[in-house]
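Support reply, case 0932

Customer input (verbatim):
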Amino acid sequence: MAAMERTFLPASIYNTLPNIRQVFDVPEDNKLDIADLKDLLDKHGVSKQVRIKLIHIHFKLKDGEVFAARDVQVPNIGPVKMMSPVVPNEGAQLYGYHYFVNDDGKLAAYEYMSAPGPSLAGHGAFLEEFCHIVKGRGLQHKLGLSLRSGENMKSTRELEFAAARTCIDVPYDVEFPRSEYVATHDTTTEFSRIDPEEPATRHSHHKHCRHCKYSKAARLPRPMSGTELGDVNLADEDDEGLNVSFDLPRKIDLAGMPVAPSSDLFGVVSYVADIVCA
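Our regenerated output:
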């Protein structure tokens, strides 16, 4: 019977998982696999808080680190999920959040959260069948599971704050700036199984195009190969994601697009930046 690993995943293994830029095409290319895995959740009556997960990472970890999520209460916005590297101490209260099927055919958490998600105790048959399908179809670095806690089930768009190796799940109703010089692409990273109107989680990728105006041809960033991606230090990429200046007055931009200080997005990013850069 398939089992779940209970130990923290070493950074050396975490860093072998694909970067988000390498899996932009998986939701479309593997849509039949996603449908089969969603049907499996229904077949075994698994909690609706369990979703199919697009396997990906954003930043490399150092030895001893894990990538963990926590909710912060942003004034005038409410709970916002942020994820960043932490070094868990002995007895740390961290729970599995995102899971992949490892080489032993077991579910292993690769990212964590501060609150427990739904229990899969009593769902041994589901775990066995899920792991069998994923490993048998070669989907181990494409599709896994997300065990969501109940504290924040809103639709969100995930942004990278690379200088702090942090991701921010921004509520979907928070408006983003737009520019004809910035190509944008939203990639669904979690797949709920029944209602298409259930809250969704997406990664929102923004890349500044220095030499041409926005066009449909430039809209979709091309997935990067492992060779191209290499050990790129995304903290040096000032044309992607969020950038925060701590000079006064504070300035924030998204792929070169200024974020208005009066906007909700500015409030969210500024609040998280104060936490991770304190």
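We compared this against your earlier run and they match. Two observations from our side: The longest strand covers residues 66-74. The two ends are 46 Å apart (CA to CA). Please reopen the case if you see a mismatch on your end.
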